[in-house]
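Data card: per-record layout.
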Amino acid sequence: MKRLSNLLSTLKPEYDVVVVGSGYGGSIAASRMARCHQSVCLLEKGKEFLPGEFPSSVTDAAREMHMSKGKTQLGTENGLFDFVVGKEISVLKGCGLGGTSLINANVSIEADSRVFDDTKWPEALRQDRQGLDFGIARARDMLKPNPYPEGQNGYKVLAKTEGMRTSAKAMQEEFKMADINVNFKEGVNHVGVHQKSCNNCGDCVSGCNHTAKNTTQVNYLPDAKNHGAEIFTEVGVRYIEKQGEDWLVHFDVLGAGREKFDASSLFVRAKKVFVSAGALGSTEILLRSVQKGLSASDMLGQRFTGNGDVLGFGYNCDVPVRGIGKMVKEGVLGDVGPCITSVIDMRKREKLEEGMTLEEGSVPAAIGKVVLSSIVHFTRIFGKDTDRKLSDFFKEKWRELHSMVRGPYYGAVNNTQVYLVMAHDDSSGKMSLKHDRIDISWKGVGKQKIFNQVGEKLHLATKALGGSYVKNPAFTKLMDYDLVTVHPLGGCVMGEDAETGAVDHKGQVYSGKQGTDLHEGLYVMDGAIIPRSVGTNPLLTISGLAERNCQLIAKEMSCQLDYAFPEMAEKSEEEPTTGIQFTEKMCGFFSAEEKEDYQKAYAAGEKANSPFDFILTIQSDDIDRFVEEQAHEAGMIGTVNAPALSAEPLTISGGKFNLFITDPEDAERKKMDYRMQMHSREGKSYYFRGYKDIHDDKGFDVWEDTTVLYISVYDGKDEQGTLLGKGMLKIKPADFAKQMTTMKAIHPKNTLAGIGAVAKFGKLFAGSVWETYVV
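The structure for this 775-residue chain is written out next.
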C-alpha cells in the first residue's frame, strides 16, 4: 500500500478547500470536494500508518499513547491512542490518517429512525429523511459493510459469537450478525487499493496490520487523492481566522522540533474550510477561534454526549470465548475474528431512551497481557459472580490459575467476554477551554437511570455464560461512577438557529449568538454536529450526514457530484524510501535602504532595529536521491519574522534548499542555497533568496561559512519582482545545538534504516567540509 500523504514542504499557500481531520466526516468532505474539481488540502494531526506499522506489542502501544488532563500531558501529542480525561467522563479517540476509523470496531448500524424525530435536530433535517437515506446509501457504497461470513470460505463460527447467541436466547432478546467494515475477499477495491481478506487476528482496535479493515485510509482518502486532493499529516490545527473573503487555517508542525525554538504557527489560505477533527477536536478548534475573534453561537461546546457508552466484562465464563487478539501466520485464519461480529439489539422499546445495543468485542494482542493482570485484580474488587455453586467455584479457580501460568490465551481470560453497550444518555455534557485544551464536564452523568439498566442487562448476559460480571473499573462508587466513551458526539451541534445550535442542518457555522446568519464557507462535518445520542455505533450516522451535507453544499456550488468509480487497476507498488529532516533557526537584520552590500545592509538593519529571522524545517523524502544528485535538493516549510515586511509572522511555501552545490562562477566555492515564497496574513507575497558561501580562505573559518546566510528579498513571487532589500542571518551556537536534536529520519522502514539515513546526511556534510577546507 502506497503512502497517501505528501511532504509538508510541498504545501501550497492557498486552496479552494481545506479539510481539517481525516475521520469519516473529513475524508468524505475531501473526497466529495475533490470530485467537485476543487483544489483540496487535507490536514491531519496524526501520523500515517501503513500495514505493519501499527502497534503489535505493549511497548509499541505505550509509545502511541497520549493522555491529557488539563495542564498534564503524557506521551506523544499525536499518538495513535488519544485519551482525554474529564471530571465525570473520559474519551478515547484515534489520532492518525484515517482518524478514529483506525482504531474503532468497524460496526455500521443505522440509528433507530425515531432518533431523528427529536426536535433537537433542525426541521430541515427532520423533513429530509430521503436525503439522509441517500447519504447512508452513499456511505455504504464506499465503506462496504458486510457481516462476518460464518461457514463460508473457511471462516468458522467464532466462540465469542456463539456466546452472544447463548446470552441473547437467555435474555429473550434479538440476536444479529453486525454489518462491519471489514474485507473478507482479497483483491483490488473500488478505489484501486489492494486489500487482503481478514485473517481473524482480532486486532482491529489497535490498527489493522493486514489491510483488511475498511478504514477511511483505504476508501475515501485514496478516492480524494485519486481526484487531486493533497494530504498532509502531523499538522496540528490551532484556530481559524476570517481574513477578507478568505479563511486562514493556523497550524503547528508536529514532530519536527519547531517547539524547541518557540516557533510561531503557520497558516494556509482557503475559500472553504471543513472542520472535521472529531467531537472534541472540532469543538476545541472553534472555541480557540472564538478566543481569537471569530463570532459564533453560545451553543458551541454544548450538548456533548458519550452516546451512552458502557464497557464491561463477562469474566471467567464456563465456555471459551477467545476474545484476546492473536497474531497469525500468513495464509492462516485465526480463531478470534474481527473485533465485533454480533449484536444483541434491544432498541425496539416503547420508549426510545430505554433501548440499547449490546456487542461483544476483542482485546488487541498488544495489550493482552496487561488485560490479564488487570482483569483478575478488578474482578476481586468489582466482580459479581453469577454462578455460586461450589463445584463451579473450584473450576473457576482452576481456570484463573491456568491463565496466570500459561497466559491470556488459556483459562479464565480466554473465557472472558468483552462487552460494549451503547444507549441513550441525556446529552447534556459541556466542553470548554481550560489551559488552552478541551475540558469536559458533566455532573452526575454516570448516575443516570439508563446506566443501571445497562448493568442489569450485562449481568444477565454474563449469567447465561456462567461468568462473573465486571464493570468498567471507573464506573464504581469508589470512582463516583465516572464513564469512558469511545463514541463522543456533540459540541458543535445542529440547531434551528444560533440560539439552539452552533451549526445549521448542513453543518454550516452560525456567525452570531442569535438568528440564522452563517459564516460563508465554514463548516463542521463530523460527529460534533450530532445533537444527541444515537443508541448504537454512530459511524454510519456520521457518514450518512456527511454525504448528505456534501451533496447540499455541492449543489450550492453548482456542482453535480459524480459518484461513479472509474475502472481502477491496482497501483504499482514503489519501493518505500527513507527521508531526512531537520529544523534550523537563523537570526539577523534586514535593510530596505541598502540593496547592494550584504554587510552594510546587516549593519543598517541593526541600527534601524529591523530584525529578520526564520525557523525552517528542511525535508527530503529520499536520502539516497538527496545524496546522489548533484543539486542535493530538499524542500522547506516554516515561518519568517520580519517586521519590515509584516507585523505578524509570515508562512513560507515552495521552499527549496540545496546543500553544497558548486558555484558556476568559481569551481573552488560551494554554496548552500535557500529559495522560498513568503506570505503575510494580509495576503501579500514576497520572494526570499539566500545563500551560504562555502570557500577556503585564510584561516579555518568553516563555522562562519556554514552559519552565515546572505539574503535578498523581492516583492512578488519570484526574483523578477522589485528588490526590496538585503541582509544577513546567522546561527547562534545554542540554536545549532537544538538543531542537531531535530535531525531525524522520515518514514524509516526500521530503526536501522533510520540510523542509516541520518548517517548518510552526516557523511555528505562532513565530506563536503573536508573536501573544501582540508583536501
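Known properties of this structure: The CA atoms of residues 51 and 210 lie 6 Å apart. The chain is about 25% helix and 25% strand.

See the next section for split statistics.
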